[in-house]
Amino acid sequence: GAATAVTRDTIAILPTLGDKMESFTKLSPQSSGQGLSFGGSDQRLNNITIDGMDNNDDRSASFRFQPSIEGISEVQVITNQFSAEYGRASGGRVNIRTRAGGNKFRGRAFYFFRDDQFNANTWNNNRRGIAKPAFTNHNPGVTFGGPIVKNKLFFFTAYEFDNIQEDTIVD
Hints:
Blueprint: E1 2-7, H1 8-13, H2 22-25, E2 47-50, E3 53-54, E4 56-57, E5 62-63, E6 72-79, E7 92-98, E8 106-115, H3 123-128, E9 135-149, E10 153-160, E11 163-166
Parallel strand pairs: 2-7
Antiparallel strand pairs: 1-6, 2-3, 4-5, 6-7, 8-9, 9-10, 9-11
């Protein structure tokens, strides 16, 4: 079937709003751009795995768990008559491969910030004279990896905290 792979190099340079892995699935030409729909199929017909392990939330037709983007090595979307080894899905197959450590200790600390001062108000709010709602997002995190036994056993960990404070206008 048709496949799209987004590698670590691409993940590192592409901006994402909200820092969510789901953004990279939209790079697949078969993506409808709405949620996790591929080739016009319903989201419930997908199969999502992390390192080959089931990651499907059947109630919400989405991920059970979304790893930190900093901990992802590759996002692969497969559609259209993929081989039987994948099974379970007639929509799309999303394979997430996590990063691994190496023979050198490496780490990274990061902090992303978004605030309503950087956002525009909606056209509808402006038309009705409603002020822009408050919004603040603090997103710090760290990654660290390295050897446990040189050339044989490695570790990698990623942690991030997403603190969103926002107001919502209900009509």
